[in-house]
Amino acid sequence: MKLLVTSDLHLVRLWRSIVLTTLAQWVREVSPDALVVAGDVAVATEADTVLRELRRVFPDGPIIVALGNHDFWGGVAAGCRTLGATVERFWQVPAERYQVTLLDQDNFCSEELTFVGGYGHYDLGFAAPGLRYQGQMVTQEHYLRGRPPIENPLRWRDFDLMPGAAEVLSIAHGQVQGVRSRILAAGSQPIFVVLHTPPFEELLGVPDASLLDPESPPIRAFFRAYLGNRAMGEMLRLYSERIAGIVCGHTHRAAGPVDLGGFAGFNVGSDYGVPRGFVVDTKGSSMGISSITELMV
Ligand SMILES: [Fe+2]
Ligand SMILES: [Fe+2]
């Protein structure tokens, strides 16, 4: 099976046509058996438009999507209180209409692999330890509000736009439980895991936290806390002998492919208007993946 794997397409109006043009070109070049998108497709209010466009670009095969944090944006304004309510309100009907599998709800089974995944969220487990800004210690309270302890215009935008965003840790925990239950439902086939947020430090694609000066860190160091879900990785390790590979996105920084202890993982590394794509070939390998190759834009 030949997969075209991408992420963080952010198909909002500004970048939609340029990104879809690239995606269509890859589909022509590769003739994939399935299209896999690891989140941040667009925003919730654009769900119908963008799933229709993905189906237009890839008319015949399976389209397998894990949602990203941006894909829940717009839920708050529509009165959705949870991520699940946002999926039901915005994504579920278009997904059925255009025959797109939402991994946040269902696994996708092929002859060789079962695709399991979902959004993922962040559990603050990748936060840089001991940060101080102008002498003020960063505490969990700051992370749970999305703002550093100094006057700064930057805030992690999920806190304004994502339903229930103040419940950082319970969302993260719920995401781990959801993926775990879908792994348990997957039977005995090798699993290809598709998450938006990285579950392993090796997949963040950002410099090691130990390279930061905690007394004088750049402001971006604060936002490291929102890059991935460490507890998700710890859960996945329990099933490592069943995992063929893992793909994620979210940080807009490429990482891997890297051996994560018996299975390969990579972060796609697309950025706004600059998509990246990979061909993942699953033929001729007992563990599920024989090659991972980056596509040229
Ligand atoms: Fe993104
Ligand atoms: Fe994201």
What does this structure look like?
The chain has helices at 13-30, 47-57, 83-97, 140-145, 158-161, 168-184, 230-237; strands at residues 2-6, 34-38, 63-66, 100-102, 108-109, 114-118, 132-133, 136-137, 191-195, 243-248, 255-259, 264-267, 277-281, 291-294. The protein has 297 residues and is α/β, with parallel strands linked by helices. It has a single domain, classed as 4-Layer Sandwich (Purple Acid Phosphatase, chain A, domain 2). Strand 2, helix 2 (47-57) and strand 3 (63-66) form a beta-alpha-beta unit. The chain is globular and about 55 Å long.
What would the average pLDDT be, to the nearest integer? 94
Q: Strand share of the residues? A: 15-25%
Order of helices and strands: EHEHEHEEEEEHHHEHEEEEE
- Based on CA atoms alone, the radius of gyration comes out at 18 Å
- Gap between N and C termini, in Å? 22 Å
Largest sheet: 6 strands, mixed
The spatial strand order of the largest sheet comes to 4-3-2-1-13-14
Quaternary status of these chains? single chain
Number of strands: 14
Ligands in the model, by name, code or SMILES, are:
fe (ii) ion
Q: What's the structural domain tally?
A: 1
CATH architectural grouping: 4-Layer Sandwich
| CATH fold-level assignment | Purple Acid Phosphatase, chain A, domain 2
CATH class: Alpha Beta
* Unreliably modeled segments: none
Helical stretch count? Answer: 7
**CATH homologous superfamily descriptor:** Metallo-dependent phosphatases
